[in-house]
Design a protein that fits this description.
This protein is an alpha/beta fold. It is built from 14 helices and five strands.
Length: 339
């Protein structure tokens, strides 16, 4: 048994974000397991990349990368793990179906050509619903009143929660046979895929213990934050994940705070800071900053933030909280590192 209580035959789910600072934390955990299941669709070039038959940069050129430095470092890590005899597989059936749908549409097919009653059609429906909700939010955010924007945030969060459930259910079914054949397994999962462990526990034998960890938890706690770094929009989506019909005032508050949070959080990859945990600290700071805001506070701030950049938004929120501090019990200012 290891120091964190995991037996060698456990299934370990590592909840993480796609940030460069996470790669060393993932490396520490992945090295303990024989099978590593990545959260990405299969690529024909993946195994040649692992075998060092093609360069990492050439492999990454084929992909549409949102976080290029994270992907680059992860590929180097996976190569090393492969060299040590670890089996590394890509398992994300939802995205695999989505890519296939895009290829069919590019070839001239239409939605009506997709086979109904199949996983591919389920993926299409979930993606279509979530995309429509996201576009409705963008439209509202461009100029609608605050209450309409809040309603659009909640609508998207509900549809996104349904999409996450489908993704996690499909992935659990695809992973289960691989885990059954392995001596020990590591499953990579984004923090929003919290339902994955529930589906895996239902499918896998009761003798196999499912263990999950937020990889950044030790660092987050060291910086005074929670183990999991869920912003208000993430919390809203998770609420709908497990309580899809829920409709209470708290959802309005989370949606309102999410509008502010999304304007002040750093979205681009960065490694500022000597300790290498820039994004972990940035997320903690953003969570702390929006925590004292009421719906009315957000209503006041949003017109100012709507078209502002990150730096401008941070300064506006900082100025607002400073002006409100004397009259608001329990209000906390943004961290001093924000300027």
């Amino acid at each position: 048994m290891s120091n964190d209580g995991c037996k060698v035959d456990d299934l370990f789910i590592g909840f993480s974000t796609h940030r460069p600072e996470i790669v060393p934390l993932a490396a520490e955990q992945m090295a303990r397991f024989d099978l590593i299941c990545l959260e990405e669709p299969p690529s024909e070039s993946f195994l040649p990349m692992l075998r060092r038959e093609i360069a990492v940069e050439d492999y990454l050129l084929e992909l549409d990368l949102e976080y290029p430095e994270f992907s680059r470092r992860m590929c180097r890590l996976l190569r090393d793990l492969h060299d040590r005899g670890k089996r590394v597989v890509q398992v994300e059936p939802f995205l695999e179906h989505l890519l296939a749908i895009h290829e069919r549409f590019a070839a001239g097919e239409a939605p009506d050509d997709l086979p109904r009653g199949t996983p591919m059609f389920d993926v299409y429906e979930a993606e279509r619903e979530a995309t429509a909700a996201l576009l409705a939010f963008y439209t509202a955010a461009a100029g609608a009143g605050f209450d309409r924007v809040i309603a659009a945030v909640k609508r998207f969060a509900r549809s996104d929660a349904r999409r996450f459930l489908l993704r996690d259910r499909m992935r659990a079914r695809a992973i289960a046979p691989l885990i059954s054949e392995a001596r020990s397994s590591y499953v990579e999962a984004g923090q929003m895929h919290f339902a994955l462990q529930r589906f895996l526990r239902r499918i896998l034998p009761g003798t196999l213990r499912v263990v999950s960890r937020f990889l950044a938890a030790p660092q987050a706690r060291a910086f005074g934050g929670p183990a999991h770094l869920y912003g208000p929009g993430d919390v809203l989506t998770l609420l709908y994940l497990f309580h899809p019909e829920r409709d209470q005032p708290r959802e309005d508050l989370l949606a309102a705070r999410a509008l502010v949070y999304n304007k002040i959080i750093e979205k681009e990859e960065s490694e500022e800071g000597s300790d290498g945990f820039f994004h972990t600290k940035d997320e903690i700071q953003a969570i702390r900053t929006v925590r004292p805001l009421s719906v009315e506070d957000c209503r006041t701030l949003y017109p100012v933030l709507r078209r502002a950049g990150t730096a401008e938004s941070r300064q506006a929120v900082k100025d607002y909280l400073r002006s409100q501090r004397k009259g608001r019990k329990g209000a906390i200012p943004p961290p001093k590192s924000w300027t």
